């Protein structure tokens, strides 16, 4: 998670009117098969980042087959009709490049950065796996083992590692956000090869993908290569499955205790958020910074430094396409009970709901947001991802240049308003993480 | 050819759209005729285009009268500026004050004559900026519009630090806790072991901070260091971002022209030799399930050396990445490890070569064998053209990517000046890399790798790995701080576990005094993260009752009670009865002097020789209860007192400062180390009441 420091003091010498965000220029087009292509030219360094965003995440999965989207993130490095097993990474690396990928509830994103004379190779590689990735039993069996180890390492064996899955499963009763991208190992074990192939044919199609190229390119040459390698990828024949589920507003608090391999209790609260594109997302992001962003933030100062009831406390707005959750997360200090920490968190939330925030604090938030956005587009890899997400999530690539002005639309009183509107104590999820040793004997 | 035809078809399609129906039939026929071979030949990977010209931007520079050299790299892509100051001094041997330089940066940030630490932190954060100090660096960055303010803060930290005593005390405490937990960390032990065997403890690169040397450090030492080394005549400043030379010069002159020069001592740094033959250095860490292996020797290599690039390529082929020989052999082929890598350092004075991996205990000797094999093999048989090409491509690629960050160009300019590199060192970097031949790399392998003169350092479970390591050279044992381990032998061959216990009872006051103790109330205190913990344990042995309460800020945080043949644990608002197994284990600690009860409880005792416990010889006695739970106690050979115990449930407890109460000696300082607590917990016994009157309330 990003960490910001926000602080008091200092006179109002800061000039807030000058908007620091620099304009990102780009060209875009769509192939006949539906592949959307965004290009950004920046010839200052002879490198390129090429990425493909597939608009498929865990929310597109069959409830009986969770974990498929993330599993594909692994499977797509297995090779293609023309790339041997395991060759993908070696080819990119020995061409002087670096690469990676990730899967969220909403998207799967693949990217590589190479010297600019290897752009054609990067496009060839991505087109290979879009056209005919190798989906066979050996690859499925190998990656199933790898994913099992990943799950153990990142969730099961990690103190507090299950917070997200446990929270999501309670925050959503209908929507597929109720499971997380890592999904279920049982589902992966039960799935047949045909089901994997079907998932590939359904979602890994050009009309569900956004190809982004950023860096030292010639627009015409890049466009020509894109057409050369991607035009022959057939358009998907079916409709792309997207959940059309309205998560009902919760009217009752969901409260549970999770016993984990931990020593120190933790409190988690989760509040449902509006859709990612809703204008209140900006105010909620600012609210989270106000509460826990930095040493002098409200909760850090009060709960960690003054009262010493918490070792750490964090507010995380997890914004998702269909409406994410705002997570409050506090780890108790030695000898402090989870309930004692929770009631202090609530006291502070109520204070913000009743009093809002001061002029100075609001100005501070704006400074922090500005700093954050300026550094967001400092690398080609960052620009590529922000362009792709602008197009896919906000429907308009130009969003990349509008984010700061969207934040600027938030008014001081909006912080108080959204605190009341979304942090509703009656409709939230509250989890207490307690040491297994505290679990009553059955 | 086929790619060409595909290009033809693409331009063709464009025209098709423009001309609409006019030539539609003609076009169609052409398209159809081409479909058979219109596609790209996907069986061939595209060749790279001509290598792009790597434009390394220029840094502008100027020097102040006080000697401060400044390099400016203007980059207007983003409206931000970074100021980075580094000091170029020789390595310092800190000796009695080892650890001093680790404190300098944080001490400088702990407040100035006009700003408290809180005020300083707040001013920086309000700008959304950052400001950090180290022993040889000072770094600040902010948005363009705040550049004057952040430089003002940077200069305040540079000129006016107040070095508060309280902050040093806090930092020392932190450092000592960190040191304690690092003694259990196999990677930290391995790093201390290798630097200690390669450089020796009397070398700036081989010495280690200890509790003692940290304790020796004073505010005066920090001030002396600051006064001696924070001088403009050994400093370089890089200014990178949305700022031109004129602006930078004005700012720097305004804030740094008054910085006073000073005489900075230079130091000689000894250059240790590689060992005459391979030697094994081992730390026996019985808890290890993995062995941390490092195969290493000193090497003279620096960026200014003519073979610098040759050794970069050599290392990439041997173990620089996930396609290199070590990785392919030890992970992909043998499955010994998650990763195996090598490195050839670069240092103005003396560097090291090392190759290593963390492997599961059982394959330790096999892994060492394979690592040595790969080193020998590359020396004897060299590399292939294909490996050379892949290494060049990878290294060129990462050079190119590094240029995306404008600070790289400033670093290039500083390195060129600082290390007296040729003016076109970076301009010709890629060309020189590209000119390297297989023969060049093979010669570098012979020159810089010494497969017969290496230290093979291993941190692992001695009883599993030691025999297998003997084949690689003479084995020397070290402790977890990298000091040669003392050889301990059991002088008294007739010693038994029972006699050790009997000696212990004698040492604490004798059978008679000990047997008079029936009840006790022991209160002690400890501090955790600045908070006081009070502990009270109450023992009533004739009635089989026991209670242990831990209190924090007046609240009971945890409570264990044994009475009526049951044990109950309360904590975090939850209460639960222990299982039989937990109860049996808890019983081992419920007695005031547990040793007096071992026999009647049916415990078995094993004497496992004499061990070195933090410098003291001690008998190791393993106590096993009927359910199989074990406690290992260590009794000092010289004093007879128990100095340490270990168990799976409570971790490690060190007993110190024995004091006499009613004729029986009790330890009054207990240090508990456990994987479940982040740092060692030191508790001090404040009161021991022997045969006190106890009430039923004591066992609630």
TrEMBL record, chain A:
This is Peptidase M16. Keywords: Hydrolase, Metalloprotease, Protease, Signal, Zinc. GO terms for molecular function: metal ion binding; metallopeptidase activity. Residues 192-368 form the Peptidase M16 C-terminal domain. The keyword Glycoprotein does not apply. PANTHER family: NARDILYSIN, NON-CATALYTIC MEMBER OF PEPTIDASE SUBFAMILY M16B-RELATED. Gene3D superfamilies: Metalloenzyme, LuxS/M16 peptidase-like. Residues 1-20 form the signal peptide. Residues 37-176 form the Peptidase M16 N-terminal domain. One of its GO terms (biological process) is proteolysis. InterPro entries: Metalloenz_LuxS/M16, Pept_M16_N, Peptidase_M16, Peptidase_M16_C. Belongs to the peptidase M16 family. The keyword Hydrolase applies.
